[in-house]
Predict the 3D structure of the following.
Amino acid sequence: MTYARDVVALARKDLLLELRARETLPAMVLFVLATLVAFRFALPAGGSERASIGLLWVAILFTALLGLTRAFVPEREQRVLDGLVLSPVDRSAIWVGKVTATLAFLVAAELVALPAYALFFERLSWETVAAVALADVGICTVGALLAAMAAAGRARELLFPLLFLPLALPILVGGVGAAVTDTPARYLGFLGLYDAVFAILAWASFEYVVTE
Amino acid sequence: MSTWSRNRGGIAVAVAAATVLVAGAALALLWAPEDADQGPSQRIFYLHVPIALTAYACFGWAAWKALRLLWTGEQRHDLESYTAVHMGTIFGSLTLVTGSIWAKTSWGVWWSWGEQQLVLFLVLFLFYAAYFMLRFSLADGPARGRISAVYALFGVVLIPISFLAIRLAENFIHPVVFTRDGPQMSGDMFFTFCVCLAGTLLLAGALYLNELTGKRLDVRLRELREALELG
Amino acid sequence: MIRGRGLERRFGAKRVLRGLDLDVARGAFVVVTGANGSGKTTLLRLVAGLAAPTAGELAVDADRAELGYLGHEPLVYRELTALENLALYARLYRVPESRERIGMLLERFGLWDVRNERSGTYSRGMLQRLALCRALLHDPTLLLLDEPFSGLDAEGAELLDRELLERRGHATFLVATHDPVRLSPLATGAVPL
């Protein structure tokens, strides 16, 4: 119970920071819209209609990348992370709080992106919406941990995408597969498996990333 | 002294590796029966598959050492895990090269997305190349060891997940055109394969020990230099 | 309270502490002295549990909830106000009656009037005062203070003097400073590095 309240306090703090600075979310929304428009021109007429769903997934992944890169910047700058690590809070709660906050930003950006996709390209199937929801969890669980790693080093903005993309490829497979194949349940199940496996791993290992 | 005795172990492994590899090459080229379908080009199998399995072994060893580091906090595991990733990346790159050559000789193309193992190695190559980027961006110290270790652990989890993903992607990326039949190996072929695998694993072991000695010497040298500067 | 044997901490080839023995009794006020780069901060980070020694043994008889740490950085979010920062930490430390406690501390350290301003707009001395509020918020029984007087003006330093005097004996202190003279009336022991 205290664990949940710690998580809420930490996530609320991130939302408050975003409300103050208004940096991340507007950037994510504008980016995903600009990307979708760019894809409209990148897709020649007569090409496969199925290709556009792949572009949607690439757009989601890159938008998440944009938000996650900065996820731990407030903590790593001026070492505020030390303050959180010193407090009697379970270290994994810091990670869960960050996952919650980044998830909120990503979902907010998608609330704009998905209708825009439906408007610009084609109607969304319920499978895609379900896949996006499942993928968001995986993206943020893995992304928050990798962001904490990348933020510890130099050149985090360059490093984070390199760490993130190879790990995110399975998400792409699950998402696209759920939309274009006859057996979406298999792909949704795979996304669920991905979420579970990496959530457990990240939950267990986060402490080691933020302590020395 | 301790460095020298460790190094002697490394030399013994290197000699064993050379012996078994020569034997394996002789068996593969001269003794193993020719594959009925693919002809002589199939013999690259005795090189390609052991190298791929060795790369997995290196990544697994790296993850094991990473786990040991997080568990015990002993710093030597960091260098061992790092060296294992280093070896894994070398053998992984060789897997890509030999796999590509095999694809060319079998089907006339240098790259095939239908070849799941190769695609997996491409993903792993990207993942472990980023390991080095991560490591080099972090300041030398215990924090670097821990973060690298967590990343190495993610690697061994990513291997089966990616493998599953690549299998699932088959259904919508490309229809499977080429199938390379499973190990319908005769007893002679299997024996040759095992000798080649043992040789490659020994080679990786020898390279690992050698590299580890070098990296340890490097650390020791920097320590001594530091001590000298302090006076 | 704190017992260290053969403590060592290295960063790659660089060894910051080597073979340090440390004993701090409950209620003691121990001053850590030494030149820049001698490992004062490293020692405090080890005791705080922010870093683990690369060799040696360290036992600290206080869990994280009882530990107050003041580092080089104030460990507050620059985009949040003093009040918001302290409210967050009060939540994380499960401080009872936190509003009163926060108000009292802000009052005492002369930050009450600026409590609703972003801490990013604070001067160096004000940030240090806020950092002290943060470190003292949960009434810790073990205080690890790294150069507590840095950045403080004369008035702030006097406030801190009074605070330390008041708590001396109730809490255990490990204080790193390059100016041991100021703390010599309080100190019960010293660790030269």
